[in-house]
Amino acid sequence: MMERAKKGIQKFGRSLLLPIGVMAPIGMIMGLTGALTQSYMIENVSWLGNSTVQAVLNSLQTITGEIFDNIPLLFAMGVAYGMSKVDKGISVFSAVLGYVTLLVVVNVYLTLTGSLADEETMTEVGQGVVLGIQTLRLDAAGGIIAGLVAAYCTDKFYKVELPLAFAFFGGKKFPPMATFFFMIPIGFIIPVVWGLFTRFLLFISPVFLNDVFGVGAYWFAHRALIPFGLHHVLASVVRFTEAGGVYMIDGQQYIGILNATNKVLFDLGPDSPSWSLAPDLFKYLASGQMLTTLFRVPAIGLAMYHTSFADNKKMAKGAILTVVLTAFLGNITEPLEFSFLFIAPQLFIIYAVLCGVLTIPLNFLNVGIGYIRGTIFDFGIFGLMYENTNWLNLVLLGLVNFVVFYYVFKFAIRYFNLETLGREKGLKNSTLLQEKQYDKIADIVIQGLGGKENIANIDNCVSRLRIDLKDQSQVNVEAVKDSGSSRVFFPQDNHIHIVFGPYVEFIRNAIDEEMKKG
Which pick of 6, 176, 260, 497 has the fewest CB atoms within 10 Å? Predict the structure, then answer.
């Protein structure tokens, strides 16, 4: 039972690789263009004010922003494709249908209960417009749910035979319909869970505002909730409601962290007496986030690179650098976090705890750096260009964070032998691989596995083929190694892993093509 669960988790983790791979470069471009189109950047860098430059940057920002806003849809398709065993095309189609159904059903629930917020206030209550539908901001969690349901329905119902009068709707047409009907009750349940969670956050909000450990509790919870898409709920509650405090500024009452921040940062500025509120406000926004984007993420990336196998460092370097820059430039940390979340959930727990504990010193360092995103651009503008920010204190605390995260991750990856980026055996020299003769490699692999009839299912991750077999005894391991693979092993009965490193995707495609031939 435990082995089956482990296999399922590993397969689920692999299914996230495709959407994660898309998130990283698109998020990096979105973050960079977003920063370069801000008025404060244009005022300080004259050439950015050129109309042509701004047209290009704004166009890129619009394109990447729209794609990134629909990342949950990509998660739905990626998870469905990776988790389904049979007709993956039907599974992906079902996932898209399921995700749209989920959005609409949640909208219906919010409408029926009178909870659908106005356009001006929907962000404050965790709502947003997705694919033209106002709904809860479920983010990746919504896509993952739809993908899992679609994969289940495809594998379970793709051979369903209906009575003759309804026979047209049987077979491959049934999984999408089954997904549709499954998503309806799920869509009504999710807002209830969201509502209960929001009320729970309001109930425990005094914990987040504690003068000593409150900011640590907040950032621990924020990171821990990312896999469930609930971190936006937490952020909205603290930013816009009494859970974030009530502040009297110039005789006027401001509710929530962000409302008070906007007044202090943009209207009053560093010379105002109210600037004394800045450190306590900003530690829940940019100051706290910068510790992650500018110091912790690079430290984790460096630890992954240094623990990657020698033969894989070149491949790992590019992948790791991309996910680190995505956070550094665009405040998008999920690509890195998701890269080890499902591979090593215990490491993610350690990560969340460290994020909380090592944020607590902000209480005593008087750091006043706004705003929300916490990118290197925010540090440059709101840290270096504003007065009275004590930015050096943030850098010193960030360096402590860097050292701690680097050594903790480096130790954990090696001690537990975790399969983080680059942790695959290196490839030996191979003429076939060097000459990119993927069709010949595919033929050698298939024959070494006992022929097409002995292969039940083919999958792959970043660097290895993962193949389900009908009869393991028919496999000739040495023959498989002749294909140029550096390592061949059986993690469980009738399931083989064949390591090819960065060539694996092309080899997988060649094997798929060969399998289709008669």
Answer: 6
Q: Is the peptide bond before 351 cis (omega within 30 degrees of 0)?
A: no
Element (H, E) at 487: strand 487-492
Q: Are residues 32 and 112 in the same domain?
A: yes
Long-range CB contacts (within 8 A, 24+) of 403-407: 403/299, 404/299, 404/354, 404/358, 405/295, 405/296, 405/299, 405/300, 405/303, 405/351, 405/354, 406/299, 406/300, 406/302, 406/303, 407/303
Query: What does the pLDDT look like over 261-292, one tens digit per residue?
Result: 888 887 888 888 999 999 999 999 999 999 99
Q: Which residue has the tokens 């890129």?
A: 60
379: in domain: yes
Contact 103, 95 (CB under 8 A): no
Q: Provide the H-helix boundaries in 84-173.
A: 88-112, 139-157
CA dist list (Å): 364 to 45, 361, 388: 34, 6, 15
369-397 residue pLDDT tens: 988 878 888 898 889 888 889 999 999 99
User: What CATH number is attached to the domain comprising 451?
Assistant: 3.30.1360.60
Residue 279 shares a structural domain with residue 321:
yes
Same domain assignment for residues 84 and 176: yes
**Distance (Å, whole) CA 269 – CA 90:** 56
Q: Average the pLDDT over 77-96 and give the result.
A: 87
Task: For helices 51-69 and 17-36, give the axis angle rounded to 10 degrees.
Answer: 150
Question: Is residue 341 domain-shared with residue 462, that is, in the same domain?
Answer: no
pTM: 0.65
- Are 147 and 247 in the same domain? no
Beta pairing class for 487-492 and 495-499: antiparallel
209 within some domain = no
- Vertex 436: Cα angle to 431 and 439 (nearest 5): 105
Q: Which domain holds residue 481?
A: 431-516
Q: Are 464 and 425 in contact (CB under 8 A)?
A: no
Sort 507 into a burial class: Cβ within 10 Å, 0-12 / 13-18 / 19+. buried
SS3 content of the chain, % helix, strand, coil (to 5): 70, 10, 25
Decide if 127 contacts 110 (C-beta within 8 A).
yes
